[in-house]
Amino acid sequence: MSSYFQSCPGPVASMLVAAVAVLSSVGILAEAQDQTSVSAPAPSHSVTPNDHPFPKWELFGGYSFLYPGAKLHYINPGATLPVSVRQESNPRGVGASLTYNFTRWLGLTGDFSGNWKEGEGAPNLSAGYMGTLDDSTLYSASIGPKLTYRKTHFAPFIEGLVGWQRMRSDSLGSNDAIGFIGGGGIDIPLNRHFAVRPIQGDYVFSNQHFGPSAKVPTTELRGVRLQSGAVFMFGGMGRPAPVSYSCSANPAEVFPGDPVTVVGSALNLNPKKAANYSWTSTGGKVAGTSSTSNVDTAGLAPGAYTVTGHVSEGAKAGQFAECVSSFTVKPFAPPTIACASNPSAVNPGDSSTITAQGTSPQNRPLTYNYSASSGQISGATESATLSTAGIAPGVVTITCNVADDSGQTASTTTTVTINTPTPLPVTVPKTQTLCSSDFGRDKRRPARVDNEAKACLDEVALNLQRSSDAKLTLVGNSGPAEKGAEALATERAANTKSYLVNEKGIDPSRIEIRTGNAGSPSVQNYLVPSGANFVNDVPGTSQEETSTVKPSTHASRHAHSRHRHHQRNQDSPATSGPK
Known about the structure:
Helix content is about 15%, strand content about 45%.
């Protein structure tokens, strides 16, 4: 059996010609609409989704592919059992839809599609050749809602449609049923009236019957339809809004000679046309051929003035508009001045800086002068100096004056307090407590100055070097359970002094050794500034005779070794290069 296209070329060809004619006519109408209407203007305010125009009508046409996803159930004449044949894909087809948009995102779509079989020849059932039994044709006409998310460069959509579906087989005839089509796709707008739909995918659902329902199962169509084509959009844009124009003057109040800038803002201009601007004013000289103009107010008398702006892109109504803005010229005002002293209180004989800040509302040049109720003040700029030499304690009033070049003046005052001298307190130096050295870590050598104690004594030496007139008092202590506690406390202080003298180079005459009763194996270091009394500041210690105090043998040998090593380093000649 021949294919439907081969057996019925007339209807199919007529349908394709009609579709091409309709789509071509829509394109011509859209182009004509562009020539007779003004495209949507670029708004000067922030754009919201509702500001974007959307078409009232969208017409789609293009290629359609169908995978039926169904087994065709039928019964041969005289047979008692039904036969099932899996339906092949329909690679040939056309699709069209027309959508009316109620809002920017909601529309009602009417959809039509036709998908044809391959056409493989008539079946030969006795030979086992199915022929066109595995090929069928599907026509559908559906209607339903469509939701579109519109952006500038793309518009994805979804739809759900219900309507008539006809499935036709050359061998078995055709069957009509109510079916459902649901899916979505994406449109890519190229201009106001034309978009490309690269892909649309739909699920196709219907139940078809080819024989008595009591004997033949339902042919369940559960297919996929893919479409691609062009979208033509028209309507909904309306007539172009008339041109509107607003302007504002800045600043709104000026003094004679100050410039005024007037800025205009035009809406609903056609970007395809050139706009012309002009300006007039009731006073001053106005200049500008764009949306901005400048007014020269030199020589204007105080009062109110208006500036009128005109914008035009044609002579027809709605293609031109005017705006009016006003400004006021104020009379010259006198200057103002603020004055301050720093410091505001000084001792007799000290000076204070007087700072004045003058302001002219019309930015005129200013001059300054000062006067004082007592003392001497000098300066003729924004800063002056008050000398209090010979002034008795009390309050001095300074008058700050400013004048502009028109003779208008302003003045203000500030004060400086001369303090009553107070006697300086006598400061008695006090003994300062420095770090202490712990001797309880080494049980075998309880008087040894270990590394941690040396770190403390290095800081002590730095203090002595910084305070050249101060002395150091070392107070040795012992623990309550130590044997020979007093001698051990004295030996610890002596070893500490030996380290400071031999290792750090401290003059031994600046170091005093004492013993105390702190109750711990330690040496406490005290810095005694010149004029301080250690006995009064730190009571409870006993002075040890220097002649009877000897450092431990280990400490002496270590110090003597370091001294000899230091002496050899000093005596070694410095080398100055290869011989």
